[in-house]
Amino acid sequence: MAHIIALANQKGGVGKTTTSINLGAALAQDGQRVLLVDIDAQGNATSGSGIDKSELALDSYDVIVDGAALRDVIVPTDNYDLLPATIQLSGAEIELATQKQREYRLQKALMTVSDDYDFILIDNPPALGLLTVNAFTAADAILIPVQTEFYALEGLGQLLNTIELVRKQFNESLDIAGILLTMYDGRTNLAKQVSEEVRQYFGDKVYHTVVPRSVRLSEAPSYGQAIIDFDPKSIGAQVYTELAQEVLKQYGN
Ligand SMILES: Nc1ncnc2c1ncn2[C@@H]1O[C@H](COP(=O)(O)OP(=O)(O)OP(=O)(O)O)[C@@H](O)[C@H]1O
């Protein structure tokens, strides 16, 4: 059975996709069998994994809304398997709203392949709608990337409320995998202040690994590559390899 980790924060641009791709690739390079699930209609995890969205016949919309078989939709990439997303997914929330068992769609699909993988990572949209609720219902744990910038903690209360709600109604064993500090700029007092604040609030739930702000990390997706392939010697490659080791330790693989 795979460990299913949802990467979520309804705040936009905090590093969910960057972490999904690079943690996924680093876990795969360690020999883990990884499935990356893109349920963000922006499809950035899909293009960032080197997949041309215009050539896809099926995507996560077909699985979640229309019940297509997951195995027919998964595509291989350099490091991991991918359930891709395209703009088609942007209508999913409204279409799901009237469907039965709407919170369990993704869980049901993932159960069909869970034995084929060691880790399933779910890249979420920047929202707390039905797609995110599907991810939380399917997941064992949530990894929350937090950008070390002003307003970092804003909205985390809402996220924690949603987690609690899903725990009560759909998935009582849902856990927080950890908080990941991202885009850390050690030259600024603000970054230090924010990371201290986050550590005070979340204690040992915060990963030791901290992702620095790095131009190479932001360049890699436009080449459709994970940082470990795009620039294996870069700080970003080192840090995501470290994060993978932390996650592996956490889950005992
Ligand atoms: N450590 C980093 N250093 C520099 N740039 C980064 C870093 N992490 C992410 N970025 C850049 O910041 C932007 C937002 O990152 P990303 O897409 O990973 O966030 P997100 O939370 O998935 O966004 P969204 O909420 O829109 O889905 C992207 O342009 C990405 O390349």
Spell out the key features of this protein.
253 residues, 8-stranded mixed sheet, Rossmann fold, binds adenosine-5'-triphosphate, alpha/beta, 12 helices, 8 strands
Oligomer: single chain
Sheet bearing the most strands, described?
8 strands, mixed
Write the element-wise H/E pattern from the N-terminal end onward: EHEHHHEEHHEHEHEHEHHH
Beta strand %: 15-25%
pLDDT averaged residue by residue: 96
What name is given to the CATH topology?
Rossmann fold
Helix % is 40-55%
The CATH superfamily label reads P-loop containing nucleotide triphosphate hydrolases
**How big is the Rg?**
17 Å
> From the coordinates shown, what is the CATH architecture?
3-Layer(aba) Sandwich
CATH class: Alpha Beta
Subunit structure: Dimerizes in the presence of ATP but not ADP; ATP-binding is required for double-stranded (ds)DNA-binding. Interacts with DnaA.
Family: Belongs to the ParA family.
Protein name: Sporulation initiation inhibitor protein Soj
Pfam families: AAA_31
Task: Characterize the structure shown.
This protein has 253 residues and is an alpha/beta fold. It has a single domain (3-251), classed as Rossmann fold (3-Layer(aba) Sandwich), CATH 3.40.50.300. 41% of the residues lie in helices and 17% in strands. It contains 12 helices and 8 strands. It has helices at residues 16-29, 44-48, 60-64, 70-73, 92-96, 105-111, 130-138, 156-169, 189-202, 215-219, 227-230, 235-251, and strands spanning 3-7, 34-38, 75-76, 81-83, 119-123, 141-147, 175-184, 206-212. An 8-stranded mixed β-sheet has the order 3-4-2-5-1-6-7-8, sandwiched between helices. Helix 8 (156-169) links the parallel strand 6 and strand 7 (175-184). The longest helix is centred in the last third of the chain and has 17 residues, at 235-251. The mean pLDDT is 96. The structure holds adenosine-5'-triphosphate. Adenosine-5'-triphosphate binds at residues 12-18, 40, 42, 44, 126, 182-183, 211, 213-214, 217-218, 221.
